[in-house]
Amino acid sequence: MTIHDMATWGGGAFIRFLLVFARCISMLVVLPVFSGHQLPPQVRLGLSAFLAYFIASALPNLDPIVAVPLFVVAILAQIGVGLLLGFLGSLVFAGIQFTGEIIDTQVGFAITNVINPLNGTNVSILGQLQLMLASLLFLATDAHLLMLRGMADSFRVLPLPYAALNPALMHDVMLFFSTTLMLIFKIAAPIAVALLVTNVAMGFLARVAPQVNVFIVALPAQLGIGLVMFAFSLPIFGFVVPQLFRQLPVQFDAALRTMVVR
């Protein structure tokens, strides 16, 4: 089948399906939970084809793309858009993991790592716990359906077949990431402050009672206070993280508007 046959077959429906499929599969490959090793590639492939079929059937017809270079550019543009959407979703999980590793460093768990099932990398204990809780909230609050709806709406904001690179896109991504980190840092702030006060108290104890082995006292004190404060911060975590997930479709819309071909 030539590119001309593909462009004209079904009134351009096949080309439209391929472009939609390229955006869907590239997003699911990067988006957390969907991109995890626990989800077989065949499932991601089938889900992408299923979504692409129904999304493509609701889109208007395209002008035939009969030139191979233009078709390759269109496919690459949709792959880039899908990777961008998945990357925006992964920024939230990256920020959660980062703050968990900061807490682990303060508590004393930084030397102990476990395997993250989402991407197969080593993460700290509390960082992994926060990732697991975030994944559960992602599914329990139907944020995964919200992401899929945002992907479907992306074809309205950024129609097929091409996309443009705009310097404002990097500004929007960095602004979203900085806002995400600021909100997540608010979860870790009480723990960090409590551990800082503990370290200062241990320093005063070392000066007041030099005969006390501060290193033996400080380690269980940091561990106990850190775990207690982490437990108290979980309700805040459960309140802030779903808000971040709900902001993702809005960020999708803002980022895609900068890529519209004028």
Write a structural description.
The protein is mostly helical and 262 residues long. The protein has one domain (3-257). It has eight helices and two strands. It has helices at 3-8, 13-30, 41-58, 68-107, 125-140, 143-157, 167-208, 214-257, and strands spanning 113-115, 122-124.
* Estimated structural class: mainly alpha
CA distance, first residue to last residue: 32 Å
- Order of strands in the sheet with the most strands? 1-2
Main β-sheet: number of strands, strand sense, barrel status? 2 strands, antiparallel
Content of β-strand:
under 5%
Total number of domains: 1
Helix-strand topology string = HHHHEEHHHH
Rg, Cα atoms, Å = 24 Å
Number of strands: 2
**Which ranges are low-confidence, i.e. pLDDT below 50, for 5 or more consecutive residues?**
none
Shape: elongated
What's this, in brief?
The chain is mostly helical. It has 8 helices and 2 strands.
Q: What are the salient characteristics of this protein?
A:
single chain, 262 residues, 8 helices
Topology:
Layout lengths: L2 H6 L4 H18 L10 H18 L9 H40 L5 E3 L6 E3 H16 L2 H15 L9 H42 L5 H44 L5
Antiparallel strand pairs: 1-2
Helix pairs in contact: 2-3, 2-4, 4-5, 4-7, 4-8, 5-8, 6-8, 7-8
